[in-house]
Structure formats: structure tokens, C-alpha cells
Amino acid sequence: MAPGTPGATAPTLQLDEVTKRYGGVTAVAGVSFDLEPGQRMAVIGPNGAGKTTLFKIIAGDVRPTTGSVHIFGEDVTTVPAFRRARTGLGRTFQVSNLLAELSVLDNVRVAAQAGTPASRRFWRPQRPDDDVTTSSLEILAKVGLEARASHTVADLSHGEQRQLEIAMALVRRPTLLLLDEPAAGLSAAERVVLRELLEGLPRELSMLLIEHDMSLALELTDRVLCMDNGRPVILGTPQEIRADRTVREIYLGRSVA
Q: What is the CA radius of gyration of the chain?
């Protein structure tokens, strides 16, 4: 149903024929899908499939050449990233975006204050019992980092830094969470922690996951979009993706079971 239709419940995220061209190169070609409230979806595909460009279009870092992006029924195709965050969108980054010399707690506090009047109060003393600190500690507890709150980010393992990035995305209580390859560079043990963390997120939180790790993507989501050379190949359930011959060919015979 089209955004704005009377009586309709708008999808959390809606893409309509989104295409992105760089000169003669088409990075994303005609991608369309709806992400319903509370739904979890993954976008998979080999290197060069267009996943990262698609993520940047959804997040607001890149404008599509043609097509449209709606978040909660609002056309945000030309809206910049910082304004999309105010609509209830949270995100993580493929490359770490942490403040390495600050404490874990202070990183979450900065994220909590971003885009609010408090973000301009540079020299205001921080109280251990203020609302921002309280909510930041609550989020750190949810991602398993409460005991590391006073440690500097530089002291964290790579897996713990990924957990912190998720905490920073969650602290402003988004309705839509975008995760850009959260398992990149993680060990097998760290991937288990990440999977348990994401599985434990509230089901009312809509989630879009861009991921190379097929097993992680298929275990965590309700629907999966497979892309290749910028084009959508198949959109289906994890079971349909596992059984699809074209997906297997794209992944050169790798097991998707």
C-alpha cells in the first residue's frame, strides 16, 4: 500500500525502484522492498553486490539516482542522515566510529546527547545520576558491557567495540536499526556473543542487517534479500534462500545450510 494511504499502517522502511549510478557504473539497480514494523531483514551478496551502497542510500549518506526511500511513511529520499536519525533510525558503521580515548560510558553518553540541546553544553559537569548517565548504563547492561563502563574504548577487544557500537545505536531508542556488517572481523566466539545480543533485542524493533556471514544473516532474520552486481536476485524467507539454486551459484557452491 502506498505511503500516506488513509487507514494504512506504513511500513517501517519502504524502497521503491532504488537505483544508484556512478557515471556508467550502476552500483544498485531497481531495488524495492518493504520492511514491516518489528520485522528483521538481511541483505546478503558477494563483494561488489551493491550492499554497502544500498545501506548508505537507506541511511542517508548517498542519494539514489532514481527511486524513493520512505521511513515510517515519510519520503526521506533527499533527507540527510542526521535528520533521518531524528525519525527513529539508529545505525552502526562498517568501519568503527568510536572515540577511542574516551570511556565506554562517555561514548554512549555522547551518542545519547547527539542531536539534542544537551549536545551543545560542552562544559556542563556530568552527574552520575542524571538521566543520560542512567539510560547509558542501562543500555550498556543490555549489551553486556556494564562492567566495562569506566574503561577506555582503546582497552576493549574488537568484539566488545562492536557491542559498544550497538549500544550507541540503541541508546536513543530507535524504531529502525541498521547494522552494517556487525560481524566483520569477529572471532567465532565473538560471533556467538553478537548473535545472542541481536537475538535478544526487542521484537518491536525493526532491523535491517547487511552481512557477509550467511549463517548469521539467515539465523537472525525473517526475510532475506540476495543481491548480485547491484541487482536484487531473490527476496524470501531464510528457508527459501537456503534452497535457491541461484543463490548457491552466486556463492560459488558455499554451503548455506
A: 19
